[in-house]
Amino acid sequence: MKRTYFFILMFLLVTALDILCLFQNEQWNFLVMYSQSKKLVVAILLMITAIIYCAVMDWKERKKPGDGREALRDQKNG
Amino acid sequence: MNLATDVGRDAWIVPLICTFIGMFLFWWFLYIIRHSEQKTIYSLFKQSLGQAGGSILGVIYITYFIYICARDMRDFSELITNAVLPSVPLEWITLCFMATVMYVLWIGEQNFINLFVIFGYTVAAIFIVFVVLVIADGQFDFHNLLPIMGDGIGPLLPSTFTQVMEFPFGELIAFTAFAGTMFPNLPGKVVRAGVFSVLISGLLITLTILIELITFGPSIRERALFPLVSAARNISIGNFIERIEMLVIFAIMLAAIVKVCIFAYAALQGVVWYTGKAYKSLIIPYLLLTTVISYYVSNNMSEHIIVGLGFIPVFIHIPLQFVIPALLLILILIKSRWRKQNDRSIV
Question: Which residue ranges does UniProt annotate as crossing the membrane (chain A) (predicted)?
């Protein structure tokens, strides 16, 4: 699940940076912007798609040993 | 975007100064990678600061690359919404743009480098046509540039060091995330070609601002959201050759694809390095994340410019583009000196 967890961490960090930039410029209306229905629906749909995609890829990988460094690490660990 | 508007008629001098600083910056960024025996800035962080410190700094840089990528995506979407398709929602334009970028990243690095070369020739051709048409149109006035530096060099310095040096020249830091993997050991030829490209790009930016100034003058340029597009819109030769702005928007679109791809690729290289997962399996989720963030970077174009040219260069760009690379360079130099001293003492 490393891919999914890392993705969620990056989502939280980038959102935090975004809010920090708006907040520092005294753009207090960022909460209003975050709650605009059309944007919010699209954003939630895209994020759900991304998280499900990551989870499915992780699940597939768990069923079948993966590629890259994980595979090498598994080989080293015997 | 509208650069160095606060210096009025001298706006073209700022990118010209920054071009030479940018050439040094690019050389410096590649020098760090070249002399660290590492291939990417992420592995360099780990080598310099250890597992925990390196991982934290690496994650900060991935966040930064994704955020800047989202801002660039928003720039392009705003341009299309404002200038070409005012009735199409911004969300749709961003999604279409994201799909293009996703495909470009999906085809692999060698293919997208070849694609960018074609883009480069196309943009150069469009720029030459645009300059010829501006000259043929004849609606320009070189007096808009006079007097040159009438108030001395002092008023140019804030824009130079807190705006244009970071955006776009400091953003070349993204290349440290993958230049070492594309060109192992970064031979001198690669560095020279990169520095020369920065010179050409800087001169193009300078020429673009010069065209905007001689066409409009500083006061109208200051108010325009996309002055180059407005300058192209003004061209009318014999009431027959008109609507040239479509060519300019097409060129900007190609440039936007290149820039977004470079930042997305830099961020993805970091994610690959940390998670060890296949590059292609990360493209879709991270570009979807970039798209979502691009919706929320600002409420409208004017807020987007205020944040992008006010807060971000000073508080985000300067630490990540100059302070951390400078500290890394000092660390690398100290380590190499220690190593030499140890070698001598062993002999």
Answer: 40-59
